[in-house]
Each structure stands twice: as structure tokens, then as C-alpha cells.
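Q: I have 294 residues here and want to know how they pack in 3D. Can you give me a structure?
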Amino acid sequence: MTYDAIIVIFNPNSTGPSEELARQLKEELEPRLDGPEVQLVPTRHSGHGEELAYEAARSHRRVLIISSSGDGGYHDVVNGAMRARAEGYRTITGLLPAGNANDHYHNIHQKSIIEQIVDGRPLKIDLLKMAGVSGGEAITRYAHSYIGLGFTPMVAQELNRTKLNPIIEVLTVAASLLKIRSVRLKVDGRIRRYDSVIANNVDVMSKYLKISKPSSMSDGVFEVTIFRRRSRLRLIWLLLRASLAGVDHDKRTDHLTLGTVDRTLVQADGEVIEIDAATELVIGVEKQTLDCYV
């Protein structure tokens, strides 16, 4: 498979090896391909990766866009590629694992990304699709791994504010769980309180939480894991059990509609979005819609 352009998007301010992995890929891939020079493109601010991916997809007939990042950076690239696809442009994405958790990478990776690119046979995976209302505006976002409400976006916000090392990470998660508030959601016409609702197509999220046994990224459905409201100690015990042995998902589906009662935080991969009160959040799946190397 030949490309008009190969672009690697990296974060020059990352605390991980984002730039290092990008430069290493360029050095090792270029001699293996009879094609264009690998372009290294740095991001300048949060969300910039999405704009870079969108413009790259619209500017080339056949382009490979690789994100040297964690789950959040790759989330940006995927959403940029899908924005361009809605306008008739197709692209292939790739991922170099330069983040903290790298959930998507660890759930799907099988062999060297260089060998995958040289072989020219990208994976075809599902994407979760979320439609809702934020700030009075209708939004559509895609997620490569999971969409979570409740404790997942709350913990993510705290982690995003903190420069992480393993000890700080554990303390941050523990402190977040102790002060977490349940969310009120309307499900099947009934309003209840939930500690978390997670739609996912990966087995493990946040490195440790085993939430589906097993899941698939290409079967056209996703798993739904529900944590109903319980005491903080019982929740911490459940999460500890999930990290050690895993928990079974509650159902497998291709469509989930949730009604918000209050303004509600939602996490799509690494992105946290506030959804308006008294609106519907619709989660679906687009089967095998993303061509990628991971």
C-alpha cells in the first residue's frame, strides 16, 4: 500500500516518550518504504491533534496519520479523521503508545507497527459514537475504547490535573473515589443513581480495571458495565476486585440511550465533556469503520 503522505503527530511537551517514539518511527520506517518522507508534526495545545488530523485527511488523497501519544491524543486523531470522513475523505490512522495507560494499544496490539505498515494490511475496528448536547449545542464524538459516566470522568479530571508517578496516581484515584458523587440518569424510563455506567469495547481500562470478559473491537456491538450506587467502601472493594479478577459486563448491545437529570460529565477515551441537564445521550457503534495500525 502506498501513501501520498505519512504524518506522525506528537506532543513536544509530553511527560512520556511522544517525540522520541515519533523520531524513532521516522528513522526506522523510511528505509522500509518506497514512498514519501515521514513528516513529524508537533501539537501546540490541547485538542490540536484533532485539527491537524482533520486538515491532513482533507489535504491528501491517501494519507496515513499516526499519533505518538496516549489514549487521549489518539482520541483526537480519530475524531479528526472521522470529521474528514463525514465530508468524503478517508484515511488510515496509527498509534505509538506514549501515554500513561495506553489502554487501546494494550487491548489490540499484536505486532510491530512498522511491520504492519510494510505489510499494508490495516486492522478494521469498531468505533463508539456518542451524540448529545453540550453547552446548548448538539455534539457528536467518537471513542476508540470506552465512554464512561460517573466516577470515570471524575477520576480522569483529577489525573489530568496531576503530574503523575505511580504513587501519586494511586493516591489521586483513592482520594477521588472517597469524594465521588453518584450521577442521576434516566434508563428505560426510570431515574436512578449510579456510581458509573461504562460503554466499552476493550477488556481493560485505566490500566487495571478489567470490565469485560471478553470484548471485541470488530463485532459491531459494545459491552455495558453498570455500577449502581453503593457506599464508598463497597465501591472501592468492587473496584479492587475488578482490578484483580475482573467484573462481568451487564449487557452487550449496539445502542444505549441515557437521559441526564443534571449536568453530567462524560469521558470519551481521554476527553471529558459536560453534557447538559435534561437531555438524551445516545451511544451507538459504527462497525469496522476505522482502518488502523496499532
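Q: Anything worth noting?
A: The chain is about 30% helix and 35% strand. The chain has a mean pLDDT of 87.
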